[in-house]
């Protein structure tokens, strides 16, 4: 059993996004976090202090732990943002912004 | 903050100090401040003299307390958007220079080397290397700790104790009495209330300011940067909302954006008009901020006196009472100098700055209070105890710029 | 001016939906403003439409109630009585003279543009979020909130991992464990810190809700069927792993909060779904000036009609105190009826909602008892090592927080925040406030958060005139 079977889902056609330069499959409607989870990825941010890995924590947009860079935009909440075909997702380092 | 500085310098002068506060440490305007230690925004005069003294003392404390108070001698950059403003800024800086301020003109084409993300098209600016910053709540807490003075937070001063001849002999609080021959009123915006408990008038009033705090960023704003119009707003007597952008990065990451000024009493409710003006002004200086998010905003109440100068020194109307309040938006910056001057007067030394402009009784038009002269000495002869009373819940001169 | 009075409902969960429907049925023009793409809130969170779930019911309880709400919403949306604004993230509600209100929202999911909805009355149905108390290792990827695991399952049809430990305390753990197990996860253990004794102590109050007891029995059956090991009176001591979760240590709690010697053991897992009850979202209400109440001052105070003490502002559901979906429905319904009458210039007749009021009283009693039975795991604060990160955003450790309280004299949450930065980051203390309060002995008070979510400065600069 998996969740898609449980809910008898017939998702639209899967597509590919890039996570740190490697292709990851995704389903239409999934959030960035859901797609990454489905691909076995649980961390996509490193903290600006200790550089520790983080991913989803609250899952409902409250904790901001799942911040990630999507198509060059930092600080997207992976648990809220739907994944789109062709998205370029990158692990967010620190503030997610360069100082230059 | 001012109370903490008074406690530190009084205690270093050999006095036995106790600190009383209605609320927590940094619970008043200090906790709502940005921690500006500025000389750049002050015109030549007594406040600038105090600012220069304070800047030297802060620098020493910075060496001593290091990163614990996040002291950063980062310098200020005042920018003028129009040629006329630049001319005025240059004239203003000329006067400051004669008073001992370092002010280096920055031509338009060199602004970017100081602030790479500054908006294009500015007419020019002025760099003030003596401007610095601390994290005000940490500064207050660490100065208090360094003073070694017992701190009674959550104690409310309810009245003054007096000797038979009417001089102050300490304070009465809701948790008991504290005996001391000298009481320092460092109650900030609430300093007028404390003065009233001693039977004297000190017309301290609140001037509300909002600060916007952004998401954490890398060092994209390197100095304290503000528009030249800011100085006019600081000096303004207007009760209505005035905002001029003041933008700075912090050691911790967020950019702080001030500074609105309005006289609305102690109303803490969110004014979207104020934060809208702050945001627009900040984006005008640093266009990249448009897409940066504000995580929070908060209001603070600057304690101002009608002539925009603080009250510092003994109160001849109430022997034993000393004032150290009413620093408006500069309380963090002016705290060290104020503390030093208070310690000097408490120990009978000649203060290193002339306190005449800061006389607490200067607002008594009819001179109806105490005729007793020679009270300047009271409390200074044998003050083995001084109450640095940071007074009611919210104290201190804060630095909402 | 013949325009009907206009109600803005913030939040499309059970409380907001019930309120919107009750008001709309009585002629009120309603704008339902919600952050999600589909109505339902957390409880009735629906799979994203493109996932084509033909049996979303399998993920939910009380599906009939949801169908009623959903159909009612559809009916009123097509008749034009309700405007449903999805993906609208409300960051502030401002009062203007009138009284009228301006509801400021960011358009999602990018949340880079703002929009303002004006209304004559507001129903705050902003729901709640999960409280998680820290323990060593709780910041490791793979450690998620119990509600978060459930939300990702319901909304994204995805599991956090293969082998899950569900832990913490409170009634939410049961549906999370059974839900994850039904969806194919191996639930290695359900670790509930409340012991059987605590649950028994409150048995009379709990037993007064036969439906809830039946629900409990149903969950017990599901857990047994999925062979989930249930450890009551146990707690997670630590989450282990370097860059992601590999195992948790679990131990039995004595009644005094100490660990029973020799009881600690390791449970390998790749996911820990953990929660210690819920907290109300009160930011919008706080900024409007509504009085906050509740045992910890962290819920919006509402009267029998669900009115707050700010004229024109009603509140219902978790935001007035945690009590679950059924209570939220009752409160929302009462609020909607009260609003319809009040906006029409009439005093409502409470007899018209007597049934909802009875169910409200009963459920509140029930949740008060639940609250007492499911306290935080005793001794959790003492077990925090000094290097355990407490504020996840600003990476402030338990040691730093303790120093602020002990050496710098901070005696309240705001001062601890000022001195340590705990609570100053992206989440503005929503995650760490209960932990900081517990660590320092400060009371948990609702922080002032004028921005209920981060707002781009460009949106602030472009705000319309009040």
UniProtKB/TrEMBL annotation, chain A:
UniProt-listed InterPro entries: 2Fe-2S-bd_N (IPR042204), 2Fe-2S_ferredoxin-like_sf (IPR036010)
GO MF entry, a single one: oxidoreductase activity
Pfam families the UniProt entry points to: Fer2_4
Keyword terms: Oxidoreductase
Protein name (Swiss-Prot/TrEMBL): Proline dehydrogenase
Organism for this UniProt entry: Streptomyces alanosinicus
UniProtKB/TrEMBL annotation, chain C:
Segments crossing the lipid bilayer: none
Single Gene Ontology MF annotation: oxidoreductase activity
Superkingdom of origin organism: Bacteria
Pfam families assigned: Fer2_BFD, Pyr_redox_2
Residues covered by the FAD/NAD(P)-binding domain: 6-331
UniProt KW keywords: Oxidoreductase
UniProt keyword annotation of Oxidoreductase present: yes
Family matches, as Gene3D superfamilies: BFD-like [2Fe-2S]-binding domain, FAD/NAD(P)-binding domain, NAD(P)-binding Rossmann-like Domain
Domain BFD-like [2Fe-2S]-binding: 389-437
The name this protein goes by in its record: Oxidase
Species classification: Bacteria, Bacillati, Actinomycetota, Actinomycetes, Kitasatosporales
